[in-house]
User: What shape does this take?
Amino acid sequence: MEKQEKLLLIVNLHAGMMKIKAALPDIIDLYCRQNQDVTVYTTSGKGDATRICRERGMLFDAVVCCGGDGTLNEVLCGLLPLENPPMVGYIPAGTTNDFASSMKIPSNLLEAARRAVCGTPTPIDVGQFNSRYFSYVASFGAFTESSYATPQYVKNALGHLAYIIEGMKDLHTIHPYQMKITVENQTWEDEYLFGCVSNSTSIGGIVKLSESAVDMRDGKFEVMLIKSPKNAAETQKIILGILTHQFDGEVIKFFPTSEIAFYSKNQLPWTLDGEYEAGSTEIQIRNLHEAIQMRI
Assistant: This one.
């Protein structure tokens, strides 16, 4: 008889439109029929998934995360410090599900649940942001705050539209950040409206990158830096560049790298996988090549 796999199922019942509440019994039934020894843990607040993974992750053969991008971030932050992290599965139940979109994980919860235990084990890259981790994006600047400032009840009611509404409310407050940025042997210093270090074809469900530009297993990130426009022509270049994926290298820089450093005079907020991160005046980001195994 095939050996039973010990599985920890971590569930954020409040993620996205809360569809997981209705689907959870069927997911547990599926895993029992797949000969999984299932332990279910429902999160109760921020940092809970990280804590349970750090404390108990080594006791399981696999950990399946059911929630949004933020919940997956917490799971990875708890598992990566372990000496031998278990296999990871992901059931995307959040609002935007950028990571799942890039990995082509089904939006159907039961199909995603099946792949989380029966899918192909695939090594993927993970980002390190100073002492923290992220699965697909670290960003600062314009619209960044809307991902974590939008109240959960608004996300549940309006879905992805909630992020757009919250971002529009912040238009009048957008201001550039003076940054020094170092990549390999190059250094730039300028004012930037937005910056992101990503490993995804979708960022916030708004910025889209072509699949040919993104490989989540190549040991590199894709970096986008948008400079503060000095006139209407540069503003138009920015808008057109984002819509058409034509980055001119001047107002919008776009390039791959495995390491990058950001320096600022004042501490500015960042987001990691859509969740608030206080950041600091010095940010070191590097790609941890194939750091975790996921069933896809």
Remarks:
- The longest strand covers residues 282-295.
- Confidence is low (pLDDT under 50) at residues 146-172.
- The chain has nine helices and 17 strands.
- Residues 20-33 form the longest helix (14 residues).
